[in-house]
Structures are given as structure tokens and as C-alpha cells.
Amino acid sequence: xxxxxxxxxxxxxxxxxxxxxxxxxxxxxxxxxxxxxxxxxxxxxxxxxxxxxxxxxxxxxxxxxxxxxxxxxxxxxxxxxxxxxxxxxxxxxxxxxxxxxxxxxxxxxxxxxxxxxxxxxxxxxxxxxxxxxxxxxxxxxxxxxxxxxxxxxxxxxxxxxxxxxxxxxxxxxxxxxxxxxxxxxxxxxxxxxxxxxxxxxxxxxxxxxxxxxxxxxxxxxxxxxxxxxxxxxxxxxxxxxxxxxxxxxxxxxxxxxxxxxxxxxxxxxxxxxxxxxxxxxxxxxxxxxxx
Length: 291
Fold this sequence. Notes:
This protein has 291 residues and is α/β, with parallel strands linked by helices.
């Protein structure tokens, strides 16, 4: 059993912290909305604190899962940040999807305090968090990874060290780049099938047995065909992630024409009221244009 803190109880963090309790760890949580932390503590039997610093005090591991770079700085740095409450030899694990720059920035502060740090963004969505089967992409030192991995295993089925600090975030960018292209392809395929008068479900039943199969096809085609988008990973968050990837691409000289195009398509989904729709709502834009 380890003494851990979990900071950020959104759709991902809430169940992730719950899995830590189920695996026997002593968990203290913090959330910006205190009522959410109170509800989590009541449901899972853990503790909560009113600042990140207070939650982190005396903990061996501190996990963070918040919205973006600025949110991450807010809960880790400064007088009330988690690092101010952590002891030398403890480990900070960041599950936020953020930039590689902020990972390196926080790692430098942690190192100056003799605190370990890993950037460890996750993939698998809300369902993956709830079922404890997330994929975790890690950047950091091997010794820190070896210490933290047994704890992370409580909510993950795959945890891999990809390189030094920042490598986890860079790998998550690759993940989002690949997803963007797959979802756009699936949306166009279903749009074509409907325009051609085909039975979408029968079409997918056939093509999913071949090379066209994907996680998106398996998990999203039915809701896409039915025009249901109030689930899963929101367009606003996907645009945030793609923006990070496109910024990094300009720096490293890579060319991401499809990613930039899909990001533009997502901006059009936002414009028709789909900011909080699932990323599969790319089909809604095509259907709207079809009239």
C-alpha cells in the first residue's frame, strides 16, 4: 500500500483515483470544485483536502490529471501547489495531456527539490478510465518509472517508458494525430454510405472484418450513424490537443497537413454548436453540408 494524492477529479481523474483505493492505496484527493472532492471521498472512503499542497503533504506519490498547461502550473507550482507540499524522494506523475515544454518546466522545479517527475498522458477515454484499462505514455527516468509503475497499474493495461521527460507528451501527440485522421476517414466513409443508400450497419459489419477495422469504427460507428454525439471525448479538448501537436510540429519541422485540416473541420463542428460533442461528430459537419 502506498500513500498517494490525486489532483483533478474530472471524467478521467475521478475513476482513476477510485481504482487506486480499490487496489489498497491510501488516497487523498483535491479538486478545484470542492463538492466534487467531497463526493469522491464519500463514495470511495478516501480523504480530501482544500489545496493541492495540503493534499500532497506526506504522500509518496502525487498524481495530477487536469485540463491544460495553465491548469497544471496552477496545481503544481507556487505556495499552494503540490510541489510545495511534497517531500524529497517523493514522485509527481502528471497524467494531463499538455505540452512537452511544461513537462520539462515542472520537471526542472521538481529536480531542484529532489522530487521525481514523470509526464504520463493517457489514452482510452472515459470508458478506459472507468474500466481501469488506460494506456499510459511516460517520459522520465527509469528508476522513477520503476517506482511509479506498480501504482499506475491500478488503472492501466499498458504503461510504457518512451524516453526522457517530454517523451510521454510527444507520444500522446502522435496518438492524437493518428486518431484525427482515422475519425475523419470513418466519418467520410459513413457519409458516403448514407449518400449511396447503403445500410451503414451492414457495411461496417463487413468492412470491420478487414483492413478498415479500427477502435473508432468498433466503438463509434453506431452512435455516428444515429447522430448521437453526447458522449466520449469532447471536440474542445481534441482541438486543444491538436493545437499542441501542430505547435510542436512547427518547431520540429514535421508536416501535418491532414491534422491541420481535421483541426479546421473541428472548428466548424464547434461553430454549429458541437464544442462538447464527441470527436466522432465530424460526421455531423458532413451531414449538415449535405443538407
